[in-house]
Amino acid sequence: MAILRPDEIRNMSREEIADELLKLESDLVTERALASAGGAPEKPGRIQEIRRTIARIKTIQGGMR
């Protein structure tokens, strides 16, 4: 579940947002490692999707402060 809509993120608690961010960052590391090892990804656009979701979360976090 990489795609989170902005309204879904805003409805989450700060702890849930932090947990989701950690999960997405670890997923990104895993996907990048797979790509650099030469493996064929299941979903080619997944890295970009994860990066966009991380950016979305960080943007909303900045507005919550």
Commentary on this structure:
The longest helix is centred in the middle third of the chain and has 23 residues, at 14-36. Helix 2 (14-36) runs antiparallel to helix 3 (46-64). The chain has helices at residues 6-10, 14-36, 46-64. It is built from three helices and no strands. It is 72% helix and 0% strand. By secondary structure, it is an all-alpha fold. The relative contact order is 0.20. The protein has one domain: Helix Hairpins. The radius of gyration is 13 Å and the shape is elongated. The mean pLDDT is 91.
Q: Class, according to the CATH hierarchy?
A: Mainly Alpha
Biggest beta sheet attributes: none
CATH topology type: Helix Hairpins
Shape: elongated
Q: Give the domain tally.
A: 1
Distance between the termini: 26 Å
Entry keywords:
single chain; 65 residues; 72% helix; Helix Hairpins; mainly alpha
How would you summarize what this structure contains?
This protein has one domain (6-61): Helix Hairpins. The chain is 72% helix and 0% strand.
Topology:
Blueprint: H1 6-10, H2 14-36, H3 46-64
